[in-house]
Write a structure and sequence with these properties.
The protein is of the alpha+beta class. 41% of the residues lie in helices and 21% in strands. The longest helix is centred in the middle third of the chain and has 22 residues, at 548-569. It is globular. It binds O-methyl-L-tyrosine and zinc ion (ZN).
Length: 853
C-alpha cells in the first residue's frame, strides 16, 4: 500500500520507474571556487528522449541560488518547485545554460561540493550533484563531461583526462559518458605521490595519490594496492583501465569509506593513508580492500552503472564480491572468508532480523542514503557468490564477459544481470531472483538418517516475516556438504546440494558407517543453520574438518553453546571447549591467523541474538560477565602454552603488513590478551614500551586498559600522537570500547568534552559515539545513560550532517530484543529524536522505521 498521508515524507517506488524525458549528450561546467560563493556555470545539450511518455522538463536542484538561466542563448525564467525547477523547453534538441551560486564552506552535510581543511571536494553519490547545479540527477542520464576549474589553489582535479591548465585554472575532459553521481572535483594545496602503470595492452597510465602536506609518507602502501588491483582485474576479469590518469585524493571529512568517481576516487583519509607506526594490520588489510573496491567499480559501477537506485546492489554486491576475491588471492582465502562471515552475521544478519530489514533490491525508499547497507553490500555479494557456486566457475566468467560486452555503457538492472547468466547457462533463474526480492535470513534446519549404507540429509527452509513482507517463498539454496568418517577422514568430498523446495532430502549411498556431516562448507549460503548437534560432534569437526571455514565454525558453535549455558544456567566454563581450543592453539601446523580467529569468542551482540533465537531475553551485563569469565578460564587453562605462543610468534623482521606477519602478530596479541588477565599487565607494558608499530602498540594499550593499568600509557599515547588525527581516532575509540561497561557512557561523555572532539568530523564522531554504540554492555546500561548520551549527540549532529546521524541510528535497531525497561528507555529516546524540530528526512526515516517495529 502506498502511503497516502500528505505529511509523510515522500516514498519512491521501484514500480513507478519511468525513463527520463530528456537525454544529455554533453555537459560543460565552469567552477569559480570561493569558500562561501562558488559560481557554477553549466552548459548542457539536451534532447527529447524518444522513449519518453512525457515532455515535462524538470531539473533537480537543492540549496542553489540561481543567478541566470538561458535556453539556446535566450534568457528564461524557470519555475522553482519543490526540489528543483521546471521550464518550458523546445521540442527539438536545445542548449540549457545556467549559473548558480553555492557555499562549500558552510556545507557540513559533506554532500555536493564542500570544504575539508581548506580543500574543496565533492561527494555526489547518491543525489549530491543536485547541490552543485540544476540537473537531471538520476543514474540513467549519462553524459560526457568537460570541466573547467578556476582557482588559485595549486591542485585542481576533475574526472577523466587533463586537457589544459595554467595560472589559476585547469580543464578536464572525461570521454566516458557517466551519470552525475560519478562527477568529482577537488581543489587544494595537495602533494602527489606519483607512479605509473602499463596496462596489458600497453597503455601508459599516470597514477597519483593526493594528500595534505605531512601525509606524503603514508601513500606508498595504497599505491601498491592500486597497482595490484589493476593487474588483478586484468588477469581475473580481463578488465583494463580506460583513461590516461587515475587519481586518488585523501579527505579528512567524509561520510563513508571512499567513492569511485570516474578517474578521481575520493577517499576518507582513514581508508587510504597508512604507515606501520600509525596503522594496524587490520587497517592495512582494509585499505588494500577499499582501494581495490573503488578501482573495480571502474567496470562494475562506472562503465556499467545502475538504471536507478533500487539497483544499487548491481554495482555494490558485485564489487564487494570482486574485492573479496582479490583479498582472498592476495592473502588467505579461508581467513578472508571467516572474517567476512563474522562481519556478515554481525551487521547483515542483525539488520535482516530487525526493523530495518529490506530486500537486497529494495522496492521503496524515502532517502536512498539510508540504503547503503550491509544488506545491499554484503548480502548482495553473497548472492554473487551463490550464483557462482550454482553455475560453476567457467560459466560464471563467461556470464561476466557477456555482461561486460552486452552492457558496456548502459545503466542496467538486476534483470539484465540475471539474463546474462540465463543466456550463458540456459538455467531459469526466476527462483534465484527471490534472493533479491525477499528480505530476511532463511533458517535451514536439518534431519539426518542412516540405513543400509545410505545417509540421508533432509533440509527444511523458512524465513521469518520482515517489515512489509509476511509471506516468503522457498529459495534456491546451494548447500555445500562433505562427509567425514569416524576416524576423521573425508568419505565424501565437498558436494553442492541444490535445494529448491521448502523441504528436500538428499541421499549419499555406499557408506560403510554413519558419517559426520560438515554442512554449509565455506558458508555456501547466507542462512542460519539450525542443527541439533552435540558438543562431541562440534569438537570432532573442530579437530578434523577438512573445510577450514567449517572447522572454525565448529569451534565457534562450541564456544557459543558453552556461553549460553553460562549465561542462562550459571554454568562453569565448558572444559571440553577449553581442551578443544587448547589443541588448536598448540597445533603449529595450523595458520596462526586461523588460530587467532579460533581463539576469538563470539561477540556480545552475537550472543544476544543467539539468546533471542533460543527464546530468551538477553541480559547485556550477564553476557559480558560470561565472556569475561570464559576468557579468564582460557587464560588459566592455557597458562603453560600462552607464553610459548607469545614468544614464538613475535616477528623479528622489518614490519610488513602482509598476511604472514599480520597472522603471527594476531596470534601473539591474542595470547597477550589472555596473559594480561593473569600477569597484572606486565607483558602488555613491556610490549607497549618496546612497540615500533601501531598493531603492537594499540594491542598492548588495550590489554593495559583491560587490566586496569592503562592510565599512564593512555596519557603517553596521546602525547605521542596528538598531531595525528587518525591515530587519535583510535585513542578515542579504544578508551570507550575497553572501558568497564558501567563506565563506558561516562568515558564517552568525558571524551565529547575533550579539546580534540568535534562532531563535524564523521571519523571522530564515530570513534566516540559509535564506539559506545558498539559496546553492548556499556551502551545498554540499565539506567539508560548510554541511550540518552547517544540520542543527545544524534540530535545535535542531525542539522549539520543528516547522513552520518541517520546511519548511527541503527545502534537502536535491536531494541526489541531487550527487556521492557530497556525498551521503554529506548522508545523514549527514539520519540525524543523524532520530536526534534526540522529533523532531517534521513533521520526521520530511520528512526520511524525502528520505532514502528
Ligand atoms: N559507492 C561508494 C560508497 C559511497 C556511497 C555513498 C556515499 O555518499 C552517500 C559515499 C560513498 C562505495 O561503494 O565505495
Ligand atoms: Zn562500492
Amino acid at each position: 500500500m502506498k502511503d497516502a498521508s500528505p505529511t509523510a515524507p515522500q516514498k519512491i517506488y521501484l514500480s513507478d520507474y519511468q525513463v527520463p524525458n530528456y537525454l544529455i549528450d554533453e555537459v560543460h561546467l565552469t567552477f569559480q571556487l570561493a569558500p562561501e560563493a562558488t559560481r557554477v556555470r553549466s552548459r548542457i545539450t539536451f534532447r527529447p528522449n524518444p522513449d519518453a511518455t512525457s515532455a515535462d522538463f524538470f531539473l533537480y536542484g537543492e540549496q542553489l541560488t540561481l543567478i541566470s538561466a538561458q535556453i539556446d542563448g535566450a534568457p528564461v525564467t524557470p519555475t522553482h518547485v519543490n526540489g528543483g525547477l521546471t521550464c518550458d523547453v523546445p521540442s527539438a534538441p536545445f542548449v540549457w545554460e545556467a549559473e548558480v551560486e553555492i557555499s562549500p564552506a558552510t556545507n557540513t552535510a559533506l554532500e555536493g561540493l564542500y570544504m575539508s581543511n581548506g580543500m574543496y571536494c565533492t561527494q555526489c553519490e547518491a543525489e549530491g550533484f543536485r547541490k552543485i547545479t540544476y540537473y537531471p540527477d538520476r543514474p540513467d542520464v549519462m553524459a560526457v563531461f568537460t570541466v573547467r576549474i578556476e582557482s588559485d589553489l595549486p591542485v585542481l582535479l576533475s574526472n577523466g583526462n587533463p586537457v589544459t591548465s595554467g595560472d589559476g585554472f585547469a580543464e578536464w575532459h572525461d570521454p566516458w559518458p557517466k551519470p552525475a553521481y560519478l562527477f568529482a572535483l577537488v581543489g587544494g594545496d595537495l602533494i602527489a605521490h606519483p607512479d605509473r602503470f602499463t596496462t596489458k595492452s600497453g597503455k601508459d597510465v599516470e597514477l597519483n595519490i593526493y594528500v595534505r602536506p605531512g601525509d606524503e609518507g603514508k601513500c606508498a602502501f595504497g599505491m601498491e594496492a592500486l597497482k595490484k588491483s589493476m593487474t588483478w582485474d586484468e588477469e581475473v576479469y580481463g578488465r583494463e583501465y580506460d583513461l590516461d590518469i587515475f587519481n586518488i585524493v585523501a579527505v579528512d571529512d567524509f561520510n563513508m569509506g571512499a567513492m569511485e568517481n570516474k578517474g578521481l576516487n575520493i577517499f576518507n583519509s582513514s581508508c587510504v593513508l597508512a604507515s606501520p607506526e600509525t596503522s594496524t594490520d587490520m587497517n592495512f588489510e582494509r585499505i588494500e580492500a577499499i582501494i581495490a573496491h573503488e578501482y573495480f567499480h571502474n567496470w562494475t559501477g562506472n562503465r556499467i552503472t545502475c538504471r536507478d537506485w533500487f539497483q544499487l546492489c548491481l554495482k555494490e554486491g558485485l564489487t564487494v564480491y570482486r574485492d573479496a576475491q582479490f583479498t582472498a588471492d592476495m592473502r588467505s582465502e579461508p581467513v578472508k572468508r571467516i572474517e567476512d562471515v563474522i562481519a556478515l552475521r554481525a551487521r547483515q544478519f542483525r539488520e535482516d532480523n530487525g526493523p530495518l530489514a529490506h530486500p537486497v533490491r529494495p522496492d521503496s525508499f524515502v532517502e536512498i542514503n539510508n540504503f547503503y547497507t550491509a544488506t545491499v553490500y554484503e548480502k548482495g555479494a553473497e548472492l554473487i557468490g551463490m550464483l557462482k557456486t550454482l553455475v560453476g566457475d567457467a560459466d560464471y566468467y563467461k556470464a561476466l564477459d557477456l555482461y561486460f560486452d552486452r552492457h558496456d555503457g548502459d545503466a542496467a538492472t538486476i534483470e539484465d544481470w540475471l539474463q546474462v547468466f540465463e543466456d550463458v547457462t540456459g538455467r531459469d533463474l526466476s527462483q534465484f531472483k527471490r534472493w533479491y526480492e525477499q528480505a530476511g535470513t532463511p533458517r535451514l534446519s536439518v534431519d539426518e538418517a542412516f540405513a543400509d549404507g545410505t545417509y540421508t540429509l533432509t533440509f527444511s527452509q523458512s524465513t521469518p516475516a520482515t517489515p512489509g513482507q509476511d509471506h516468503k517463498d522457498p529459495r534456491v539454496i546451494p548447500i555445500a556438504v562433505g562427509l567425514l568418517g569416524a576416524d576423521g577422514n573425508e568419505v565424501v568430498p565437498t558436494t553442492v546440494l541444490e535445494m529448491t523446495e521448502a523441504t528436500q532430502s538428499f541421499a549419499f549411498d555406499g557408506l560403510s558407517a554413519k558419517p559426520v556431516p560438515s554442512i554449509l562448507r565455506g558458508f555456501s549460503a547466507p542462512v542460519i543453520l539450525e542443527r541439533d548437534s552435540d558438543n562431541a560432534e562440534r569438537a570432532f569437526l573442530l579437530a578434523h574438518d577438512t573445510d577450514p571455514f567449517n572447522k572454525w565454525e565448529a569451534g565457534r558453535a562450541l564456544a557459543r553453546a558453552g556461553l549460553v549455558e553460562m549465561v542462562l544456567n550459571n554454568a562453569a566454563p565448558d572444559g571440553d571447549y577449553l581442551d578443544a581450543v587448547l589443541q588448536v592453539l598448540r597445533n603449529d601446523d595450523l595458520d596462526p591467523a586461523f588460530r587467532a580467529l579460533t581463539l576469538a569468542l563470539p561477540s556480545q551482540d552475537d550472543l544476544a541474538q543467539t539468546l533471542v533465537d533460543l527464546g530468551h531475553t538477553p541480559d547485556p551485563t550477564a553476557i559480558y560477565q560470561a565472556l569475561e569469565t570464559l576468557k579468564m578460564a582460557m587464560a588459566t587453562h592455557m597458562q603453560d602454552v600462552l607464553p610459548r605462543i607469545y614468544a614464538q610468534y613475535q616477528v623479528n623482521e622489518a614490519y610488513q603488513p602482509d598476511a604472514e606477519q599480520s597472522g603471527a602478530r594476531s596470534l601473539a596479541n591474542a595470547a597477550l590478551a589472555l596473559i594480561s588477565r593473569t600477569d597484572g599487565g606486565a607483558a602488555a607494558q613491556a610490549q607497549y614500551d618496546s612497540a615500533d608499530n601501531m598493531t603492537q602498540q594499540l594491542a598492548a594499550l588495550g590489554c593495559l586498559i583491560m587490566a586496569g593499568k592503562g592510565d599512564a600509557a593512555t596519557a603517553e599515547f596521546y602525547d605521542q600522537w596528538k598531531e595525528d588525527r587518525l591515530v587519535i581516532d583510535k585513542w578515542f575509540a579504544l578508551q570507550i570500547s575497553h572501558a568497564a561497561p558501567e563506565r563506558a557512557a561516562e568515558v564517552a561523555a568525558d571524551l565529547t568534552q575533550h579539546v580534540d572532539f568535534t562532531m563535524k568530523n564523521p571519523n571522530r564522531f564515530r570513534a566516540t559515539l559509535g564506539a559506545l554504540a558498539m559496546s553492548p554492555a556499556g551502551f545498554h546500561r540499565a539506567d539508560g545513560a548510554g541511550y540518552a548520551l547517544l540520542a543527545d549527540w544524534l540530535i545535535q549532529l542531525d542539522p549539520l550532517n543528516p547522513q552520518t546521524t541517520a546511519r548511527m541510528c541503527s545502534a537502536f535497531e535491536t531494541w526489541k530484543r531487550y527487556d521492557s525497561d530497556r525498551q521503554a528507555l529506548i522508545a523514549a529516546q527514539l520519540d525524543r529524536i523524532l520530536a526534534t524540530p526540522d529533523l532531517s528526512r534521513d533521520t526521520t526515516e530511520m528512526v520511524s522505521r525502528i520505532r514502528a517495529s
